[in-house]
Amino acid sequence: MINLEAMTNDGKVHNLAGKERGENARDNFSLDSIDTQEENVTIVIPEHVYAVSSSFFLGMFSNSLKSLGGKEAFLQKYKFDSTPLVLKQVLHGIERWESSNPQA
Q1: Of 11, 6, 15, 2, whose CA–CA distance to 61 is shortest?
Q2: What is the Cα–Cα distance from 31 to 47, expressed in whole angstroms?
Q3: What are phi and psi of 45, to 5 degrees?
């Protein structure tokens, strides 16, 4: 399980945004290593987070989408525990990735 609470400065941050911040989260949670493991992973996005920008999402998960071979395999490996609104934003991030990687 990966809990993005660690990215919220003890609940003070309600909007996860920025590619660089997403890349930092990727490094902090060792996603390059996790992508190669067989276990599925739940990503917990706290209820007090009301926005996950596509730039943050892509900074954190673009390499995972690529290494896992696209949306279906990515969503098999990574399950998102979040509000419906934030889940919609996650899916939008995946759509943005797909539109810039049409061969995936």
Answers
A1: 2
A2: 22
A3: -110, 110
Q: What H or E segment, with its residue span, contains residue 13?
A: none
Question: pLDDT over 90 for what percent of the chain?
Answer: 95
**Does this model's pTM top 0.85?**
yes
Instruction: Please say whether the beta carbons of 45 and 80 come within 8 A.
Output: yes
Residues 61-92 have pLDDT tens digits of 999 999 999 999 999 999 999 999 999 999 99
Which residue bears the tokens 């926005």?
A: 51
Give the CA-trace dihedral at 63, 66, 70, 72, to 10 degrees.
-50
Domain with 6 in it: 2-100
Helix (H), strand (E), coil (C) string for 14-53: CEECCHHHHHHHHHHCCHHHHHHCCCCEEEECCCCCCEEC
Confidence of residue 104 (pLDDT cuts 50, 70, 90): low
Question: What is the tally of structural domains in the chain?
Answer: 1
